[in-house]
From TrEMBL:
Protein name: Ig kappa chain
InterPro entries, per database record: Ig-like_dom, Ig-like_dom_sf, Ig-like_fold, Ig/MHC_CS, Ig_C1-set, Ig_sub, Ig_V-set, IgV_Light_Chain
PROSITE patterns according to UniProt: IG_LIKE (PS50835), IG_MHC (PS00290)
Signal peptide boundaries: 1-19
SUPFAM superfamilies assigned to the protein according to its UniProt record, in alphabetical order: Immunoglobulin (SSF48726)
Keyword Protein transport in annotation: no
Ranges of residues in domain Ig-like: 16-113, 138-235
Annotated transmembrane regions: none
Species this chain originates from: Felis catus
Gene3D superfamilies for the chain: Immunoglobulins (2.60.40.10)
GO cellular component: extracellular region; immunoglobulin complex; plasma membrane
BP GO annotations: immune system process
Pfam families: C1-set, V-set
Length: 242
């Protein structure tokens, strides 16, 4: 059963997991895999998906970062055109499996099962496939607010972490040695399909008046790949230009 990309987006947004009639449960939710190794994702329905026409409408979709979901498998085990034979589907009744015989770096993304037997149709919660690789230390850069921004009454200090693995990382902000807990926003990229690393942006925002009243601004990074905390800092009076 094929759905327009726009409808798929709405289904993923509004109907994850369960509905009034059929609940769809995927395991695992996170799947780290080394390239070349096999991987499998399970999907269980709360009731049989065998339709009265004798067919079972269980599909598998892959959503890559910034793209609409793409169907891989339809009616349990049929591959869509252009899908590599590394992908296969199996199952019946309530239990279904998507298998990848040899994972490649380009397979990263979120995999969803979708039942199309009973209306309304529902996706599972999604399984995020991640490529395992060796630990990689982040490259860290700290940027002060621009003068143009300060003139607007706001100040944003940005700490950029590039090319690290694994994904788990901790960023701590300090102003004149005091840990900051407010005005912080973080954004992590999806895994890079080329080198399987992540990048993160952490922004500390305050009023320009508050910024001018402090001197030292620090971004402290803790990560599995680092033997000790990595600290980037600047003194406002030393780098500010009129």
């Amino acid at each position: 059963m094929r759905f327009p990309a726009q409808l798929l987006g709405l289904l993923v947004l509004w109907f994850p997991g369960s509905g009034a009639n059929v609940a769809m449960t995927q395991t695992p939710l996170s799947l780290p895999v080394t390239p070349g190794e096999p991987a499998s994702i399970s999907c269980r329905a709360s009731q049989s998906l065998l339709d009265s026409d004798g067919k079972t409408y269980l599909d598998w979709y892959l959503q890559k970062p910034g793209q609409s979901p793409r169907r891989l498998i339809y009616q349990v085990s049929n591959r869509d055109s252009g899908v590599p034979d590394r992908f296969s589907g199996s199952g019946s009744g309530t239990d279904f499996t998507l298998r990848i015989s040899r994972v490649e770096a380009d397979d990263v993304g979120v995999y969803y099962c979708l039942q199309g037997t009973k209306y309304p149709f529902y996706f599972g919660q999604g399984t995020r496939l991640e490529i395992k690789r060796s630990d990689a230390q982040p490259s860290v850069f700290l940027f002060q607010p621009s003068l143009d921004e300060l003139h607007t009454g706001s100040a944003s200090i940005v700490c950029i972490l590039n090319d690290f693995y694994p994904k788990e990382v901790n960023v701590k902000w300090k102003v004149d040695g005091v840990v900051q807990n407010k005005g912080i926003q973080e954004s992590t990229t999806e895994q890079n399909s080329k080198d399987s690393t992540y990048s993160l942006s952490s922004t500390l925002t305050m009023s320009s008046t508050e910024y001018q009243s402090h001197e030292k601004f620090s971004c402290e990074v803790t990560h599995k790949s680092l033997a000790s905390t990595l600290v980037k800092s600047f003194n406002r009076s030393e780098c500010q230009r009129e």
